[in-house]
Amino acid sequence: MRGLLVIGHGSRRGEANATVRELARRLATGSAHPTAPCADVSPGPDGSPDPAPSSTGSQSANDPRPWGAVESAFLEVTRPNIAEGYANLAAAGCTEIIVYPFFLFDGNHTHRDIPAALDEARERHPTTRWILSEPLGLHACVIEAVRARLDDTLRGLVHAAGTST
């Protein structure tokens, strides 16, 4: 069975940690924002949209829940930590664990710290293997999301300029 481990950095701010947990919940249930325009866009090698859907083994890329179990975990500050999240997936019967680092950029955490923690967790669960996904980076939908946030900001400025205080 395949599991999904969504890893966030971990924060003293509960709202930040709640976002990681909510992402894991939505990935587990297959729910997304109903107007998400990027829901079916896969990036090409240069980050631009690729019209051909990618395959995920025997499960369809269009399957909203190709995971038998989903867990959230954190690199530092809060729990569950990576070892605990990995152990929960192994206990649920997952032998293949896809790991999604919910980070914007590829850096030391995604290249060094997370793989080291995953290797340590796998030592305790030798019948499992893990596969690390790329972080968000400049995926076409990230660029679209940034444009949407900027549009919201500009609309807010126009609205604020039109009001008197």
Automatic annotation (TrEMBL):
User: Could you say which residues form the signal peptide?
Assistant: none
What is an example of a GO molecular function annotated in this UniProt entry? Answer: lyase activity
* Segments passing through the bilayer: none
> What is a single Pfam family found in this protein's UniProt entry?
CbiX
For the region Disordered, give the residue spans.
27-66
- Domain of life here? Bacteria
Keywords from UniProt, A to Z, are:
Lyase, Metal-binding
Question: Known PANTHER family for this protein?
Answer: SIROHYDROCHLORIN FERROCHELATASE, CHLOROPLASTIC (PTHR33542)
Q: What is this protein called?
A: Sirohydrochlorin cobaltochelatase
Question: What is the organism of origin for this protein?
Answer: Frankia canadensis
